[in-house]
Write a structure and sequence with these properties.
By secondary structure, the protein is an alpha/beta fold. About 50% of the residues lie in helices and about 15% in strands. It has 2 domains: about 1-130, 3-Layer(aba) Sandwich (Rossmann fold); about 145-189, no CATH class. It has a 5-stranded parallel β-sheet with strand order 2-1-3-4-5, with helices on both faces. The chain has a two-stranded antiparallel ribbon with strand order 6-7. The longest helix has 25 residues, at about 110-130.
Length: about 190
């Protein structure tokens, strides 16, 4: 798995990068949040491990930017911290979109465990995304079932979800197989 690391302390960054590589991961490491954001924005990754306090863009603002970016896949965000002070600080981080925390000094086993959780959650996020991309449609009347278990016409469903307007027409196959025979029947009388 490709993991983006944002850590301004050179020793911590090197230790974390080396540990992640030993676990078999590809690592992109940056010494500040702004460069890490630029790299992520150019080529998103599924896991970010970022220090909380960094120059240019701190860990919380970095996470907020990641969360605001529209993405097809979820990014798991782990925040490194040396001194979290009370539950309000944790709440602020959670409200910014942080998924998990790693305390400094870094512990190899803790890193491994947090990554196992990240992999598990990302796997389930992909399963959920795939399930949500399925559209239940009736084989007979072609109505679509929405999230509230209500059946509605495809046009209504799409219009409500996407704001799409429809203009109705007849395709050549339906014209030949349905409309033309009806017109011929009407002409004959």
């Amino acid at each position: 798995m490709k993991i983006l690391v944002a850590e301004d302390d050179q020793i911590s960054r090197k230790l974390l990068s080396t540990t992640l590589k030993q676990f078999g991961h590809e690592v992109l490491a940056f010494d500040n949040g702004a460069d890490a954001w630029d790299a992520f924005n150019a080529s998103p990754v599924r896991v970010i491990v970022s220090d909380w306090l960094m120059p240019n863009l701190d860990g919380l603002d970095f996470c907020r930017k990641v969360r605001k970016r529209s993405a097809t896949e979820y990014t798991y965000f782990i925040l490194l911290t040396a001194n979290v002070q009370g539950k309000d600080t944790y709440m602020e981080a959670m409200n910014a979109g942080i998924d998990d925390f790693l305390a400094k000094p870094l512990d190899r086993d803790q890193i491994w465990m947090r990554l196992r959780v990240a992999e598990r959650i990302l796997k389930y996020a992909t399963v959920i995304q795939n399930l949500e991309s399925m559209l239940p449609i009736c084989s007979y009347c072609k109505k679509v079932r929405d999230d509230n278990n209500y059946w509605q016409q495809v046009e209504t469903y799409l219009s409500n979800r996407t704001g799409t307007s429809f203009s109705h027409s007849v395709c050549p196959t339906c014209y030949t197989n349905k409309v033309k025979p009806e017109l011929d029947k009407m002409k004959k009388g």
